[in-house]
Design a protein that fits this description.
Rce1/LyrA-like_dom, metalloprotease, mainly alpha, globular, endopeptidase activity, transmembrane helix, transmembrane
Length: about 300
């Protein structure tokens, strides 16, 4: 019988929750302040622009010749910053910032299944993407709705700007910055650190998964995409819990981001006639088929890891 089944001492539970809170704060500071500064410093050798010109590029990247490159550095730096401070904190306190994460792949079929589950779930989630994007708030929340809609529009403009690839090299850089880095960093923070500690502190795995998923969606600051991103985070959380392997949600997250970027690149180059950024969902029949496929794959995934 595990410690969680035996009951958790109040001191251990309190320590885990406190640790989760500290790690969350450190990751936010790293993501919003330290990381972008690191990215800005690293970008200096790659541009002839002055500090003032770089400031202008940050405020208006679409009209700056260095705008896209600078944003890539800032985004990459922010992602590195997200894990840097928590990793240093854990290294100083526990001597191992990867402790508690099972990184040994015992059955590669789980990794492959997580790829198909993620792609199938994208079809299911398209229903929630459309519903959430069209959500209206009551009149007394009009100010919040206007603010949130403004953030959403800015994020969409930025996404279109960053994914308007002028060459394969552009696409390759974006793939590393948008697909590879976040897959590891966000899973490390939200599933590896927060979900584990909330579970250790409460003994309630569903609570740990959903709280981590809500925090995961919150940090993206896109409220008209909040629900589908929260559902995606919850799916990563359950894949991690059922498999017990850290690389499973990392691969699933990478699949979600990487598949989206590949589809955008193919659409931009004229290879396919499908806009994956369109928030309009497929027909309900299609969503239903994706739901049946996803449930079937998840069932097999759970059965595979129950042995």
């Amino acid at each position: 019988m595990t410690d969680l089944e035996n009951g958790i001492s109040d001191s251990n539970a309190s320590h885990s929750i406190t640790s989760a809170f500290i790690l969350l704060i450190l990751s936010i500071i790293g993501f919003t302040i330290l990381g972008p500064l690191i990215g800005l410093v690293i970008s200096l050798p790659f541009t002839d622009a002055s500090i003032l010109e770089l400031q202008n590029s940050i405020s208006n990247p679409a009209n700056s010749p260095d705008g896209k490159v600078l944003l890539y550095f800032l985004q990459g730096g922010a992602t590195i910053g997200m894990i840097l401070l928590p990793a240093i904190y854990l290294k100083l306190r526990e001597s191992d910032f990867m402790r508690g994460l099972n990184t040994r792949v015992s059955d590669p079929r789980g990794i492959f299944l997580s790829i198909f589950i993620t792609i199938s779930f994208m079809g299911v989630n398209s229903f929630f993407i459309e519903w959430n994007s069209e959500l209206s708030f009551p009149s007394w929340m009009q100010g919040f709705e206007n603010w949130a809609r403004s953030l959403e529009d800015q994020a969409m403009e930025m996404t279109i700007f960053l994914t308007n690839f002028s060459s394969f090299g552009d696409f390759a850089i974006a793939f590393i910055i948008i697909a590879v880095f976040p897959a590891f960093a966000e899973e490390y923070v939200f599933r590896g650190l927060l979900q584990n500690r909330i579970y250790q502190g409460t003994g309630k795995i569903h609570l740990a998964i959903w709280v981590s998923a809500i925090l995961f969606s919150c940090i993206h600051m896109q409220f008209f995409g909040f629900i589908p991103r929260m559902l995606l985070g919850a799916m990563f959380g359950y894949l991690y819990f059922w498999s017990g392997n850290f690389w499973v949600p990392v691969v699933a997250h990478f699949t979600n981001n990487g598949f989206t970027l590949i589809m955008i690149y193919l659409a931009n180059s004229g290879a396919i006639d499908y806009d994956i950024q369109n928030t309009e969902s497929p027909t309900l029949a299609s969503v239903g088929i994706f739901t049946i496929i996803t449930v079937g794959l998840v069932y097999y995934f759970r059965k595979l890891h129950s042995n």
